[in-house]
Specification:
single chain; 16 strands; alpha/beta; 4-stranded mixed beta sheet; 379 residues; 10 helices; elongated; 33% helix; 6-stranded parallel beta sheet
Length: 379
């Protein structure tokens, strides 16, 4: 699937632009726009896109804007963002003056040509900025624009020509976040990085991408079960886990379930338009698993079943129930599971496959994708 990009201007978009000289050339001049931290964090948690900061800094490195006055404030800004969990895939700075008309200066595309030739979906990408040059950049890229704080002058021919590029005009970062998340419904993706003293886990869930899953937990049977979830739910999973297996697999399995549930919660968003419920009865030789699932927002697990043996491979069978309990806790899912049989491998695998099939039914869309599957109006 092609990646989308959000290009962000800096001055006037992420930080306030000093009206006297338009240069943030000291720490005293550094001031973030209201709501930008909160909004960017929420967006980066829920949107699987490439984040690019692109800014014109007139004459940077010349007498009019010495390097030593620029970098302390810029680096402090980047530090503030990073401390709040906000990162950028690339920061692009053009140093030229407007009168030079260089192809690298916004709204020209000289510094972003690598995004025009790669595997990117520019038609569903965004440029967010406070100047018409930002909106013109969006037009030149074939992307969409969000304009911060400027009014459109109907007498300005360049403005009129760009009017169709602007999808939102606002002074509020909260409105920008709400709008972009509302445009994110076609790509249901959740990404979680969970790191503790016991495990380091990266999980990516795509509910609609029909790609190749990549799963590595270093617990062979557990990998096999997660592969069943991806296959039979019709989703793509990327799960990479490093855990304290020198102790035992408990933390690896538990924390993977917690991260997976959190990623599902992100991918489902406000759950608008989904079926919400899924239930499946799945046989596997002598074993029979019955799974009923509700993405209700209320974590609950009912487990009925006694699995013989202590381990299947390196997988402790007692962790089967605990996996589903942990998934419920972070996904806000209600699960009712009953399993019977005599072969531990079959019983566990039937349960994971039944779980996957219930997920597939629950995440499917209703005919009306804008309908909330609850009389409460919210889940």
């Amino acid at each position: 699937m092609k990646k989308r990009i959000i290009f962000l201007d800096r001055d006037g978009t992420l930080i306030k632009e000093p009206p006297e000289d338009y240069q943030v050339d000291s720490l005293e001049k550094l001031s973030l726009l209201p709501g930008v931290i909160r909004s960017l964090y929420e967006l980066q948690q829920q949107m699987d896109v490439v984040w690019v900061m692109i800014t014109n800094q007139d004459g940077l490195g010349t007498e009019s804007f010495p390097e030593e006055t620029f970098w302390p404030a810029h680096n402090k800004m980047m530090e503030l963002f990073e401390q709040e969990g906000i990162t950028f895939d690339e920061v692009i700075i053009d140093r030229t003056f407007a009168h030079e008309n260089k192809p690298t200066r916004k709204p020209e595309t000289g510094l972003v040509t690598h995004y025009m030739t790669g595997d990117y979906d520019l038609g569903n990408s965004w440029v967010v900025g406070d100047r018409w040059s930002d909106i013109k950049l969006a037009q030149n890229l074939g992307a969409k624009g969000i304009l911060i704080g400027k009014s459109l002058d109907p007498q300005d021919e360049s403005g009129v020509a760009l009017q169709n590029v602007v999808q939102l005009q606002t002074d509020s970062w909260d409105e920008i976040a709400t709008f972009l998340l509302s445009q994110n419904t076609d790509e249901r993706v959740g990404k979680v990085h969970r790191k503790t003293y016991e495990t380091d886990i990266h999980v990516r869930v795509s509910l609609d991408e029909k790609g190749t899953s990549s799963i590595s937990t270093d617990v062979g049977f557990f990998d096999h079960m997660l592969e069943q979830v991806a296959k039979h739910a019709g989703i793509t999973l990327d799960i990479q886990v490093k855990g304290d297996l020198h102790i035992d697999p408990h933390h690896t399995i538990e924390d993977t379930a917690l991260a997976l549930g959190q990623a599902f919660k992100q991918a489902l968003g406000d759950k608008r338009g989904i079926q919400r419920y899924g239930f499946f009865m799945l046989p596997m030789d002598e074993a029979l698993a019955q799974v009923a699932l509700d993405f209700s927002g209320r974590p609950w697990l009912v487990w009925k079943g006694k699995i013989p043996r202590e381990k299947v491979g390196a997988f402790p069978v007692e962790m089967t129930e605990h996996f589903f309990k942990s998934f419920c806790d972070t996904s806000g899912c209600t699960l009712n599971i009953q399993v019977e049989g005599t072969n531990a491998h079959h019983m566990i695998e039937a349960t994971f496959k039944g779980f996957a099939r219930a997920i597939k039914a629950a995440i499917a869309f209703m005919e009306n994708k804008n309908e909330m599957p609850s009389t409460k109006g919210v889940l």
